[in-house]
Amino acid sequence: MADVSSYEHTGDGVERRVLLAGPRSFCAGVERAIEIVERALEQRGAPVYVRKQIVHNVTVVDDLAGRGAVFVEELDEVPDRATVVFSAHGVSPAVRQEADRRGLDVIDGTCPLVAKVHAEARRFAARGDTVVLVGHAGHEEVEGTLGEAPESMVLVSTPDEARELSTAVGGQVSYLTQTTLAVDETAEVVGALKEKFPLLQEPPSDDICYATTNRQAALKAIVAESDLVLVIGSENSSNSVRLVELAHREGTRAELIDRAGDIRPEWLAGVRTVGLTAGASAPPALVTEVVTRLGAFGPVRVEEREIARETVRFDLPSPVRGDTRRTADGRSS
Question: pTM (2 decimals)?
């Protein structure tokens, strides 16, 4: 992590306004997933294996790796009977079956809101539906959801793909969505599906999660006033990338950064107002570091723009429940 106190003040000296979008940074599912790995390390000792990145953020992954977490792509990299944590993005039944066959000690870090979509996929498929999943091919969450009913599901990403679906798919058609999509773009895809299949069945509640929706709405509240938007998040973070795309659609230049040191001085030329947000898997401390880094280029005046207060909390899975408590800085004690 960058030592922001060491940044030299070599900027243009221009005072800038920083508009902080709120909510931003960690959501309840991410906090839960990180705490699962922390508790597993404390209670069972290193190494604790994690299938895929626990959340899509390089800072989080590097921190946990330094404390004894071993991140693997697939279960064949995990020794028999070792402890393995499933990431917040969920896994398919085939992965669970492989873990059982190998005698692995599984701790499930799947976000409860992703688990909800999995349950809907099973239920819709069981009643005979063809289930259209709106999402991005190759994303871990999408792969896990498709694995729930592979013979009954089809993936679409765009309105055109929705329109190209055959009307001969057979039976009742329903749809589900990835939890981290752009709200506006997803509405366009769903609209195309409804045109194609007038009797399209909907999930009982929105699948796009509250955190994704809130962060997009918060950015919309500041993007028109911003000359530049900085989104803190990693390249493989779907919800972070969607924030950059949202800013671009609104006509504002935006950059995705992992950390404060990624900011390039030339980005700030002619910029008087910087919109700042962070994806749901980005640690809050990185926001403070970015503000400090911006201060190295000249005085900054920070304004908070909070459109909602998030109070969602998720229980930990039983294997890691215990007396461990979180301290004020978010670490376990």
Answer: 0.91
